[in-house]
Amino acid sequence: xxxxxxGIFILFIFIRVFSYNLNVGTYENYPISFTKDNNVKGIxxxxxxxxxxxxxxxxxxxxxxxxxxMKELEDGNLDIAFAFGYSLERSKIFxxxxxxxxxxxxxxxxNYKEDITSFKEFSxxxxxxxxxxxxxxxxxxxxxxxxxFGIKCNYIEYDTYDEIMIALSKNIIDIGxxxxxxxxxxxxxxxxxxxxxxxxxxxxxxxFSKNVDNSIINxxxxxxxxxxxxxxxxxxxxxxxxxxxxxxNKVPMWIYIIIISSVMIIFxxxxxxxxxxxxxxxxxxxxxxxxxxxxxxxxxxxxxxEQLKSNNLELENMYNEMEKSKKKLEEKYNEITSLxxxxxxxxxxxxxxxxxxxxxxxxNSKISDFLKRENDFLLSEMLKISINVINSDYGSVYKFVGNxxxxxxxxxxxIGILKTLDLDKKYVFDVYNVEVVExxxxxxxxxxxxxxxxxxxxxxxxxxxxxxxxxxxxEKIAGISFDNKEKKFTNEDIEIAKAFKTxxxxxxxxxKYENNFKKSYVNFANKLAMVAEAHDEITxxxxxxxxxxxxxxxxxxxxxxxxxxxxxxxxxxxxxGKIFIPLNILNKKGKLxxxxxxxxxxxxxxxRKLLEDNEYFKVALNxxxxxxEKYDGTGYPFNLIGDNIPIEAQIVSIVDVYDALRSNRPxxxxxxxxxxxxxxxxxxxxxxxxxxxxxxxxxFINYEKEIESIYNxxxxx
Length: 717
Known about the structure:
Layout: H1 2-18, E1 21-26, E2 34-36, E3 39-41, H2 43-55, E4 58-63, H3 66-75, E5 80-85, H4 88-93, E6 95-96, E7 102-110, E8 126-130, H5 134-137, H6 142-149, E9 154-158, H7 161-169, E10 175-179, H8 180-190, E11 193-208, H9 214-229, H10 234-243, H11 253-297, H12 302-346, H13 350-372, H14 375-390, E12 394-401, E13 404-411, H15 415-418, E14 423-424, E15 435-438, H16 449-458, E16 464-472, E17 475-484, H17 491-535, H18 540-556, H19 561-570, H20 583-586, H21 594-601, H22 603-611, H23 618-626, H24 647-662, H25 673-682, H26 694-702, H27 704-716
Parallel strand pairs: 1-4, 1-5, 8-9, 8-10
Antiparallel strand pairs: 2-3, 5-11, 6-11, 7-10, 7-11, 12-13, 12-17, 13-14, 15-16, 16-17
Helix pairs in contact: 11-12, 12-17, 13-14, 13-17, 14-17, 18-19, 18-24, 18-27, 22-23, 23-24, 24-25
């Protein structure tokens, strides 16, 4: 009887082991899952086939759109489905296995008509998404992400990722949302481009019908645990097979993107240095040629030629400084490499990857904006981003101006009070590396009592302070401070702080280099203006007044700050071509002959000899070449009409006429402001209001008194 019982038990076990017929569903998501020769292939199916072969399970695969697979699994028509990210809503309907197969995250793709660099640019765009996709409808999916930013767009729903890619390649939609791994493996196939925008990191699992025996789930987890522990297991062979070592769940792909982007930036900077070298060499040769021409034609211009020689020497010094900057750029590359190593170490923590992923991406996407903005904006933004990543209670950022310690921004502290403090630089706790200080208040012994009381009112009490000094070229220029009421800063916080220190200092250095380049160009422009002033003493002060008044009008037209600065710097060059006009014509009293007038008009064309073939001098060339064009087409040298004339030339045109009418010239006495204003508004035999842009003329009318005051002040000085 005992033998019969044992036999029945063994038979039961035998039947149980060999009787599992499992209906498994999935959707097209190459290389995670896909069909080939009417068979389901991919990472998940290969792993499941390996387990089922070991356990003697019979697998029947079905591949349909994701939404249909989830419906059939919920209705009990399927036992298992893959590959799905976890969500609370899904866990109420399905069971998940415990051990994830692979990590993935959402990525933004565009066609070559679009250039998307931030989520703000989604506004009013058509966005392709897959029905039921977690990257679409999930808690942190694109829909909730954009709603959180208050961004509205038009969602176009598709059954598969392939349909999204096809629509994107045919320009039916502007933007496509697909998983990172799918996009990486398929982007070349559809001739689309990825962006640096990524979101919602997830892990992919098997999901099961509520009716499936838990022993099946436990068996799958058991095999996954063993395979992932063994680096030589079939699990890693399958990943290598489909991902070609591009998408293993070890280091997120965006780290490689940052590294590649950094290397590209360094390459571009080297190329800029090389290009500037060629530009300077070419410009130097042109100036030398012009010098020889002037010496041969006009003996009276010897003094101006000496000035041009001096300019050449300064340009050569500029080139030498640019050569020195190569070494600086190499140091920057090493700093960025060091930063990436720090990030690589930090990313070994899964918790860090999930909680701080978005903030780190935000820094990467804002670097180009930081380089264009003032240092105070950069310091404020770095504080706002880093305080969440470092997980601090409070924070502040400050700068040093001369011997003064000035607060720029604060979170948690009272920035209104802090900005009113008169603090000496020597009061700051003196550190040169990232450092944690306990009870930092005890070191405030040098601060005067009255100032210290105000400081205590503005700063909340804390036990631990994390200090990040920002040093550029050996000079401490700013600092960031994080404060915790009681909790200590972790080693991970300190490493992240070091990364922020390196990144902030690198951006500040780069801004300084770019500003030096721009100053060099402006200095060269000033030297040319000095040459023109020395050549034509009658109109010398005229060019300075034109610069200041042109800047005033440009601001009233709400032109962007960069254009206003260029108009201010380059409008004094509007008559630079006159250095090629003989002095006997420039200073002639009385009316010019037709031949002399034709020579005089060529001064606009002569400006090309000095300013052409240089992108940075484009605004300067437009001003010098077109400032005698008139809005009604009656000007010279090209008879341009309306807005075919660059806006900078339109501004300088009216200012040039205003100043000329108010100035003494060999052929006329100076007019009063009132008479000059009436000529501009109502016209006379020579000047008509139709010569000017109506919008600019309106500004001249509305701000007549301010313009008169500015002119009188400049003339007085």
